[in-house]
Write a structure and sequence with these properties.
Rossmann fold, binds NADP nicotinamide-adenine-dinucleotide phosphate, Dihydrodipicolinate Reductase, domain 2, single chain, alpha/beta, 434 residues, 14 helices, Alpha-Beta Plaits, 35% helix
Length: 434
């Protein structure tokens, strides 16, 4: 029998407890031994959780659980940095294996935690930290172990995907879509982490760490959210054959990797572009497998609880077979991989210039773009309103980010340009099989 302690009895904690209790017999049947939920520590012991557990199962004193020598595995399901980090380090120091869903903590303090776990000879499971119900961590660590990972593209924030889907399908503005997401429980009261791309970047740091064997300084990830996206850009994207998605991208070339999170236009016939609502999807391109795609629920009590229990089971199996550490956290530590500066990234771009409707404007703008080696693939100019500002949409061929930023700076100074230029990166590679 393997004993488990859970800290945090909120959304994920409740889902995990429910699965451990309701599927206890099924798990025993599959494993040949019992996974026993021994203790739950949480702030408010008497809060109603919709699950029946005995009174003596729940405590508000985390040390009761951490000091129990019979508890083999501790699941930290509190979230945030403090005191979650402290709970994890204490559990490790007491020789307990740890499972966590805490992407924010792993993305920013993972190095220290993994080091402590390695030193103590205990395992850290973090399947629930990325894309809830999709077992993407196991996919990269085990399923794709034979591959060099060329690229990872993820829709890994359900809130943002829900908002963009709503804006696309119902033609509503960002703020209204956000309000609806909050009403339905897809967005938190403070949605900053989700809509500004930070949550996606946390998850990208974890995926890139596993894919490329390097610890990612979080600040090296270029992050942009969706709060500036307007419905007119979604409509123009649609006219050009694209959908707008918040994409987390890790792409390897030679000894460099690109790490970026930003709104991205994707050809609407790519499978990943069809991922709608609060769903998540991750595309992984391996040198042996080619394209692979994983789809499912990225959050919620039971999908995330499923991931937590999967980690508990993996660790329990290793304990029983006396084989903990069987699958090392990373297979190799690469010191020769550099993280590419966003300025050096090459991509196609969508531009929306707010330009006066008068002769010669397009040639002025295209002249500046040309000076920065940005060549035009197509142009949309709508609604003639002589002497007034109208949107002038330009799709470019591949261009360098540094050049794009410089060109926009110059263009926005033109007297015929009335507002800041909007630009969105476009992923439309021929070798992408999305
Ligand atoms: N929600 C999701 O769908 C989801 C998906 C993937 C990953 N995650 C990650 O999972 C973790 C938990 O998220 P959640 O949504 O379950 O959060 P949540 O609903 O807010 O639950 C957090 C729980 O931690 C407890 N807690 C807070 N401070 C504590 C302390 N000092 N000592 C003991 N317990 C404490 C709270 O106690 P009380 O309830 O007793 O006040 C609450 O039960 C986070 O790292 C999150 O990023 C969540």
């Amino acid at each position: 029998m393997i004993n488990v302690g859970i800290i945090g009895f909120g959304t994920v904690g409740s889902g995990t407890v429910k699965i451990l209790l309701e599927n206890k017999d099924l798990l025993k049947e599959r494993l040949g031994f019992e996974i026993n939920l021994k203790k739950i520590a949480t702030r408010s012991v008497n809060k109603e959780r919709g699950i029946k557990v005995s009174d003596d199962m729940v405590t508000s004193d985390v040390s009761v659980l951490l000091d129990d020598p019979d508890i083999h595995i501790v699941a930290e399901l509190v979230g945030g940095i403090t005191p979650a980090k402290d709970f994890i380090l204490q559990a490790i120091s007491k020789g307990k294996h740890v499972v966590t869903a805490n992407k924010a903590l792993l993305a920013t303090e993972g190095k220290e935690i993994f080091k402590a776990a390695q030193k103590a000879g205990v395992e850290i499971g973090f399947e629930a930290s990325v894309a809830g119900g999709i077992p993407i961590i196991k996919v990269i660590r085990e399923g794709l172990i034979a591959n060099r990972i060329h690229a990872v593209y993820g829709i890994i924030n359900g809130t943002s995907n829900y908002i963009l889907t709503k804006m696309t399908e119902e033609n509503v503005e960002f703020s209204d879509a956000l309000k609806e997401a909050q009403k339905l429980g897809f967005a938190e009261a403070d949605p900053t982490m989700d809509i500004e791309g930070i949550d996606s970047a946390h998850k990208l740091a974890i995926l890139a760490f596993l894919s490329y064997g390097i610890s990612i300084p979080f600040e090296d990830i270029s992050v942009e959210g969706i709060s500036q996206i307007e419905t007119q850009d979604i409509e123009f994207a649609s006219e050009l054959g694209y959908k707008v998605k918040l994409l987390a991208i890790a792409k390897a070339s030679n000894s460099e990797i690109e790490l970026r999170v930003h709104p991205t236009m994707l050809p609407r016939d790519y499978l990943i572009a069809k991922v709608e609502g609060a769903f998540n999807a991750i595309y992984v391109e391996g040198d042996a497998t080619g394209s692979t795609l994983y789809y499912g629920r990225g959050a919620g009590d039971l999908p995330t609880g499923s991931a937590v229990v999967s980690d508990i089971v993996s660790i329990a199996r290793n304990i029983v077979k006396n084989a903990t550490g069987r699958i090392p956290l990373i297979t190799a530590t690469k010191s020769d991989i550099r993280i590419k500066n966003i300025d050096d990234v090459v991509s196609m771009y969508y531009f929306r210039f707010s330009a006066l409707d008068k002769p010669g404007v397009l040639s002025k703008i295209s002249g500046i773009l040309g000076n920065y080696n940005i060549s035009i693939a197509s142009v949309i100019q709508k609604g003639r309103r002589i002497g007034e500002a109208v949107p002038l949409v330009v799709l470019s061929h591949q261009a360098k980010e540094r050049d794009v930023r410089q060109a926009i700076k110059e263009i926005d100074l033109l007297p015929v340009v009335m507002d800041k230029t909007v630009f969105i990166r476009v992923e439309d590679r021929e070798d992408w099989q999305g």
